Known about the structure:
The protein is of the alpha/beta class. The chain is built from 15 helices and nine strands.
Amino acid sequence: MVRIYLEDEVSLKPLEGKRVAIIGYGSQGRAQALNMRDSGVNVIVGLREGGDSWRKAEEDGFTPLRISEAAEEGDIIHMLIPDMAQPEVYRSYIEKHLDKGKTLGFSHGFNIHYSLIKPRDEVDVVMVAPKSPGARLRETYLNGFGVPALIAVANDYTGKAKETALAMAKALGCTRAGVLETTFKDETESDLIGEQTVLVGGLMELIKSGFEVLVETGYPPELAYFEACNEAKLIMDLIYERGLVGMLRGVSDTAKFGGITVGPKIIDEHVKENMRKAAEDVRSGRFAEEWIRAYREDPDLTVKFLKNLEAHELERIGGFIRRISGLEKGASTA
Protein backbone atom coordinates (compact mmCIF):
# COMPACT_ATOMS: atom_id res chain seq x y z
CA MET A 1 0.00 0.00 0.00
CA VAL A 2 1.35 3.43 -0.97
CA ARG A 3 2.08 5.68 2.02
CA ILE A 4 0.01 8.89 1.96
CA TYR A 5 0.95 11.90 4.11
CA LEU A 6 -1.63 14.48 5.16
CA GLU A 7 -1.40 18.03 6.52
CA ASP A 8 -1.22 17.27 10.24
CA GLU A 9 1.52 14.65 9.78
CA VAL A 10 4.06 16.98 8.16
CA SER A 11 6.05 19.91 9.54
CA LEU A 12 7.70 22.87 7.86
CA LYS A 13 10.56 22.78 10.39
CA PRO A 14 13.03 21.10 7.99
CA LEU A 15 12.87 24.30 5.92
CA GLU A 16 13.54 26.67 8.81
CA GLY A 17 16.76 28.57 8.27
CA LYS A 18 17.01 27.19 4.72
CA ARG A 19 16.93 29.11 1.48
CA VAL A 20 15.10 27.45 -1.42
CA ALA A 21 16.42 28.40 -4.87
CA ILE A 22 13.76 27.87 -7.51
CA ILE A 23 15.44 27.45 -10.90
CA GLY A 24 12.98 28.51 -13.59
CA TYR A 25 9.82 30.60 -13.54
CA GLY A 26 7.44 28.93 -15.95
CA SER A 27 4.09 27.46 -14.95
CA GLN A 28 5.48 25.19 -12.20
CA GLY A 29 8.34 27.47 -11.18
CA ARG A 30 6.11 30.46 -10.60
CA ALA A 31 3.41 28.51 -8.74
CA GLN A 32 5.87 26.68 -6.51
CA ALA A 33 7.88 29.82 -5.74
CA LEU A 34 4.77 31.80 -4.80
CA ASN A 35 3.21 29.02 -2.74
CA MET A 36 6.41 28.41 -0.80
CA ARG A 37 6.91 32.12 -0.18
CA ASP A 38 3.32 32.45 1.03
CA SER A 39 3.96 29.53 3.38
CA GLY A 40 6.79 31.46 5.02
CA VAL A 41 9.69 29.79 3.22
CA ASN A 42 12.75 31.85 2.24
CA VAL A 43 12.59 31.62 -1.56
CA ILE A 44 14.96 32.98 -4.20
CA VAL A 45 14.58 32.59 -7.95
CA GLY A 46 17.35 31.76 -10.42
CA LEU A 47 16.83 32.69 -14.08
CA ARG A 48 18.52 33.69 -17.29
CA GLU A 49 18.86 37.44 -17.04
CA GLY A 50 16.58 39.79 -18.93
CA GLY A 51 13.93 37.41 -20.28
CA ASP A 52 10.17 37.39 -19.86
CA SER A 53 10.44 35.13 -16.81
CA TRP A 54 12.86 37.57 -15.18
CA ARG A 55 10.38 40.41 -15.63
CA LYS A 56 7.48 38.27 -14.41
CA ALA A 57 9.37 37.31 -11.26
CA GLU A 58 10.09 40.98 -10.58
CA GLU A 59 6.40 41.80 -11.02
CA ASP A 60 5.63 39.11 -8.44
CA GLY A 61 7.93 40.75 -5.91
CA PHE A 62 11.06 38.62 -6.29
CA THR A 63 14.54 39.92 -6.96
CA PRO A 64 15.75 37.38 -9.51
CA LEU A 65 19.31 36.14 -9.51
CA ARG A 66 21.40 34.56 -12.21
CA ILE A 67 21.11 30.78 -12.04
CA SER A 68 24.67 30.32 -10.77
CA GLU A 69 24.12 32.94 -8.06
CA ALA A 70 20.89 31.31 -6.90
CA ALA A 71 22.57 27.90 -6.86
CA GLU A 72 25.41 29.28 -4.76
CA GLU A 73 23.08 30.94 -2.25
CA GLY A 74 20.45 28.20 -2.06
CA ASP A 75 20.50 25.38 0.48
CA ILE A 76 17.84 23.60 -1.57
CA ILE A 77 18.18 23.94 -5.35
CA HIS A 78 14.88 23.04 -7.00
CA MET A 79 15.10 22.44 -10.77
CA LEU A 80 11.89 23.56 -12.51
CA ILE A 81 13.04 24.12 -16.08
CA PRO A 82 12.20 21.78 -19.01
CA ASP A 83 13.67 18.28 -18.86
CA MET A 84 15.87 18.65 -21.93
CA ALA A 85 17.36 21.94 -20.70
CA GLN A 86 18.24 20.63 -17.25
CA PRO A 87 21.47 18.67 -17.93
CA GLU A 88 23.31 21.60 -19.56
CA VAL A 89 22.06 24.10 -16.98
CA TYR A 90 23.11 21.70 -14.22
CA ARG A 91 26.62 21.24 -15.62
CA SER A 92 27.15 24.92 -16.43
CA TYR A 93 25.63 26.70 -13.44
CA ILE A 94 24.64 24.37 -10.61
CA GLU A 95 27.02 21.44 -10.17
CA LYS A 96 29.93 23.54 -8.91
CA HIS A 97 27.71 25.05 -6.21
CA LEU A 98 26.34 21.75 -4.87
CA ASP A 99 28.21 21.84 -1.59
CA LYS A 100 28.16 18.93 0.82
CA GLY A 101 24.80 18.61 2.57
CA LYS A 102 22.80 20.68 0.09
CA THR A 103 19.58 19.37 -1.47
CA LEU A 104 18.90 19.07 -5.19
CA GLY A 105 15.19 18.94 -5.98
CA PHE A 106 13.11 18.04 -9.03
CA SER A 107 9.42 17.84 -9.92
CA HIS A 108 9.96 15.06 -12.47
CA GLY A 109 12.44 12.22 -12.22
CA PHE A 110 13.47 11.98 -15.89
CA ASN A 111 17.05 13.25 -15.66
CA ILE A 112 17.91 11.39 -12.47
CA HIS A 113 16.26 8.12 -13.50
CA TYR A 114 17.94 8.08 -16.91
CA SER A 115 21.28 9.31 -15.48
CA LEU A 116 21.46 12.50 -17.52
CA ILE A 117 22.24 14.30 -14.27
CA LYS A 118 24.54 12.54 -11.79
CA PRO A 119 24.86 14.55 -8.55
CA ARG A 120 27.73 13.97 -6.15
CA ASP A 121 27.11 11.49 -3.31
CA GLU A 122 27.39 14.14 -0.58
CA VAL A 123 24.06 15.84 -1.41
CA ASP A 124 20.43 14.91 -0.92
CA VAL A 125 18.41 14.35 -4.10
CA VAL A 126 14.64 14.59 -3.78
CA MET A 127 11.53 14.93 -5.88
CA VAL A 128 8.38 16.89 -5.11
CA ALA A 129 5.92 16.47 -7.96
CA PRO A 130 2.52 18.20 -7.76
CA LYS A 131 0.02 16.29 -9.88
CA SER A 132 -1.41 19.29 -11.69
CA PRO A 133 -0.37 22.16 -13.95
CA GLY A 134 1.15 25.13 -12.15
CA ALA A 135 -1.90 27.35 -12.54
CA ARG A 136 -4.08 24.80 -10.78
CA LEU A 137 -1.49 24.34 -8.02
CA ARG A 138 -1.54 28.08 -7.35
CA GLU A 139 -5.32 28.41 -7.64
CA THR A 140 -6.07 25.66 -5.13
CA TYR A 141 -3.47 27.01 -2.71
CA LEU A 142 -5.08 30.45 -2.77
CA ASN A 143 -8.45 28.80 -2.15
CA GLY A 144 -7.13 27.14 1.00
CA PHE A 145 -6.72 23.67 -0.44
CA GLY A 146 -4.14 21.98 -2.67
CA VAL A 147 -3.45 19.28 -5.22
CA PRO A 148 -1.99 15.82 -4.57
CA ALA A 149 1.74 15.35 -5.01
CA LEU A 150 4.38 12.66 -5.14
CA ILE A 151 7.63 12.70 -3.21
CA ALA A 152 10.70 10.53 -3.66
CA VAL A 153 14.30 10.33 -2.48
CA ALA A 154 17.13 9.30 -4.81
CA ASN A 155 19.97 10.04 -2.37
CA ASP A 156 19.82 10.64 1.37
CA TYR A 157 23.24 11.90 2.41
CA THR A 158 22.04 13.87 5.45
CA GLY A 159 19.50 11.31 6.65
CA LYS A 160 16.84 14.04 6.40
CA ALA A 161 16.02 14.02 2.69
CA LYS A 162 12.52 12.61 3.11
CA GLU A 163 11.64 15.17 5.77
CA THR A 164 12.87 17.93 3.45
CA ALA A 165 10.75 16.65 0.55
CA LEU A 166 7.66 16.40 2.74
CA ALA A 167 8.19 19.91 4.08
CA MET A 168 8.49 21.24 0.53
CA ALA A 169 5.26 19.48 -0.40
CA LYS A 170 3.54 21.01 2.63
CA ALA A 171 4.80 24.46 1.68
CA LEU A 172 3.20 23.97 -1.73
CA GLY A 173 -0.13 23.14 -0.10
CA CYS A 174 -0.05 19.56 -1.33
CA THR A 175 -0.38 17.86 2.05
CA ARG A 176 -3.88 19.34 2.22
CA ALA A 177 -4.82 16.95 -0.61
CA GLY A 178 -2.43 14.08 0.15
CA VAL A 179 1.21 13.35 -0.66
CA LEU A 180 2.18 9.90 -1.90
CA GLU A 181 5.63 8.43 -1.35
CA THR A 182 7.14 6.79 -4.43
CA THR A 183 10.49 6.37 -6.21
CA PHE A 184 12.14 8.31 -9.02
CA LYS A 185 11.83 5.20 -11.21
CA ASP A 186 8.12 4.68 -10.63
CA GLU A 187 7.22 8.37 -10.98
CA THR A 188 9.20 8.78 -14.18
CA GLU A 189 8.00 5.64 -15.90
CA SER A 190 4.35 5.85 -14.86
CA ASP A 191 4.23 9.54 -15.81
CA LEU A 192 5.65 8.91 -19.28
CA ILE A 193 3.45 5.88 -19.91
CA GLY A 194 0.35 7.75 -18.77
CA GLU A 195 1.17 10.78 -20.93
CA GLN A 196 1.84 8.71 -24.03
CA THR A 197 -0.95 6.14 -23.89
CA VAL A 198 -3.77 8.18 -22.32
CA LEU A 199 -3.38 11.80 -21.23
CA VAL A 200 -1.59 13.38 -24.19
CA GLY A 201 -0.94 10.90 -26.99
CA GLY A 202 -3.89 8.54 -26.59
CA LEU A 203 -6.52 11.17 -25.85
CA MET A 204 -5.31 13.53 -28.58
CA GLU A 205 -5.38 10.83 -31.25
CA LEU A 206 -8.75 9.51 -30.05
CA ILE A 207 -10.27 13.00 -30.34
CA LYS A 208 -8.66 13.62 -33.74
CA SER A 209 -9.81 10.27 -35.09
CA GLY A 210 -13.35 10.75 -33.79
CA PHE A 211 -13.52 14.20 -35.37
CA GLU A 212 -12.14 12.97 -38.70
CA VAL A 213 -14.58 10.04 -38.88
CA LEU A 214 -17.55 12.28 -38.16
CA VAL A 215 -16.49 14.75 -40.86
CA GLU A 216 -15.74 11.95 -43.36
CA THR A 217 -19.22 10.56 -42.69
CA GLY A 218 -20.71 13.86 -43.75
CA TYR A 219 -21.43 15.76 -40.54
CA PRO A 220 -20.56 19.48 -40.28
CA PRO A 221 -17.12 20.11 -38.74
CA GLU A 222 -18.66 22.33 -36.05
CA LEU A 223 -20.96 19.52 -34.93
CA ALA A 224 -18.09 17.03 -35.11
CA TYR A 225 -15.98 19.28 -32.87
CA PHE A 226 -18.65 19.42 -30.19
CA GLU A 227 -19.19 15.65 -30.23
CA ALA A 228 -15.55 14.55 -30.40
CA CYS A 229 -13.76 17.27 -28.44
CA ASN A 230 -15.80 19.88 -26.62
CA GLU A 231 -17.97 17.42 -24.70
CA ALA A 232 -14.92 15.39 -23.65
CA LYS A 233 -14.33 17.91 -20.86
CA LEU A 234 -17.86 17.39 -19.52
CA ILE A 235 -17.33 13.63 -19.37
CA MET A 236 -13.87 13.98 -17.81
CA ASP A 237 -15.26 16.33 -15.17
CA LEU A 238 -17.81 13.66 -14.24
CA ILE A 239 -15.11 10.97 -14.08
CA TYR A 240 -12.84 13.27 -12.03
CA GLU A 241 -15.60 14.05 -9.55
CA ARG A 242 -17.48 10.73 -9.43
CA GLY A 243 -15.42 7.95 -11.03
CA LEU A 244 -16.39 5.79 -14.00
CA VAL A 245 -19.55 4.43 -12.39
CA GLY A 246 -20.59 7.91 -11.29
CA MET A 247 -20.02 9.20 -14.82
CA LEU A 248 -22.22 6.46 -16.29
CA ARG A 249 -24.91 7.26 -13.77
CA GLY A 250 -24.76 10.86 -14.95
CA VAL A 251 -25.40 10.20 -18.65
CA SER A 252 -28.47 8.91 -20.48
CA ASP A 253 -29.35 5.22 -20.72
CA THR A 254 -28.71 5.39 -24.45
CA ALA A 255 -25.22 6.79 -23.83
CA LYS A 256 -24.61 4.09 -21.20
CA PHE A 257 -25.59 1.27 -23.56
CA GLY A 258 -23.59 2.65 -26.48
CA GLY A 259 -20.57 3.27 -24.31
CA ILE A 260 -20.44 -0.15 -22.67
CA THR A 261 -21.13 -2.08 -25.89
CA VAL A 262 -19.19 -0.11 -28.50
CA GLY A 263 -16.36 1.29 -26.34
CA PRO A 264 -14.55 -2.08 -25.98
CA LYS A 265 -14.72 -2.53 -29.77
CA ILE A 266 -12.82 0.74 -30.23
CA ILE A 267 -10.31 0.32 -27.42
CA ASP A 268 -9.76 -3.38 -28.04
CA GLU A 269 -6.97 -5.83 -27.26
CA HIS A 270 -4.94 -4.50 -30.19
CA VAL A 271 -4.93 -1.03 -28.62
CA LYS A 272 -3.94 -2.48 -25.24
CA GLU A 273 -1.09 -4.36 -26.91
CA ASN A 274 0.16 -1.09 -28.42
CA MET A 275 -0.02 0.43 -24.94
CA ARG A 276 2.06 -2.45 -23.59
CA LYS A 277 4.68 -1.83 -26.29
CA ALA A 278 4.79 1.87 -25.41
CA ALA A 279 5.17 0.97 -21.74
CA GLU A 280 8.04 -1.38 -22.52
CA ASP A 281 9.79 1.32 -24.55
CA VAL A 282 9.63 3.58 -21.50
CA ARG A 283 10.74 0.91 -19.04
CA SER A 284 13.64 -0.25 -21.22
CA GLY A 285 14.91 3.30 -21.79
CA ARG A 286 14.27 3.19 -25.55
CA PHE A 287 11.86 6.11 -25.45
CA ALA A 288 14.32 8.25 -23.46
CA GLU A 289 17.10 7.44 -25.93
CA GLU A 290 14.84 8.32 -28.87
CA TRP A 291 13.70 11.59 -27.28
CA ILE A 292 17.23 12.67 -26.32
CA ARG A 293 18.57 11.88 -29.81
CA ALA A 294 15.66 13.66 -31.53
CA TYR A 295 16.07 16.75 -29.33
CA ARG A 296 19.80 16.95 -29.96
CA GLU A 297 19.25 16.68 -33.72
CA ASP A 298 16.43 19.24 -33.76
CA PRO A 299 15.56 21.17 -30.56
CA ASP A 300 12.58 22.71 -32.40
CA LEU A 301 11.04 19.33 -33.21
CA THR A 302 7.99 19.76 -31.00
CA VAL A 303 7.51 23.38 -32.12
CA LYS A 304 7.31 22.18 -35.73
CA PHE A 305 4.79 19.50 -34.76
CA LEU A 306 2.59 22.12 -33.14
CA LYS A 307 2.70 24.26 -36.28
CA ASN A 308 1.58 21.29 -38.37
CA LEU A 309 -1.20 20.46 -35.91
CA GLU A 310 -2.44 24.06 -36.05
CA ALA A 311 -3.35 23.44 -39.71
CA HIS A 312 -5.70 20.56 -38.81
CA GLU A 313 -9.39 21.34 -39.32
CA LEU A 314 -10.08 20.34 -35.72
CA GLU A 315 -7.86 23.20 -34.54
CA ARG A 316 -9.35 25.70 -36.97
CA ILE A 317 -12.93 24.91 -35.92
CA GLY A 318 -11.97 24.58 -32.27
CA GLY A 319 -10.22 27.94 -32.24
CA PHE A 320 -13.30 29.63 -33.69
CA ILE A 321 -15.63 28.01 -31.15
CA ARG A 322 -13.31 28.81 -28.25
CA ARG A 323 -13.06 32.44 -29.32
CA ILE A 324 -16.80 33.00 -29.58
CA SER A 325 -17.21 31.20 -26.25
CA GLY A 326 -14.60 33.42 -24.57
CA LEU A 327 -12.33 30.45 -23.81
CA GLU A 328 -9.33 31.16 -26.07
CA LYS A 329 -6.51 32.15 -23.73
CA GLY A 330 -3.43 30.52 -25.24
CA ALA A 331 -1.88 29.89 -21.82
CA SER A 332 0.64 27.09 -21.27
CA THR A 333 -0.17 24.49 -18.61
CA ALA A 334 3.22 22.81 -18.52
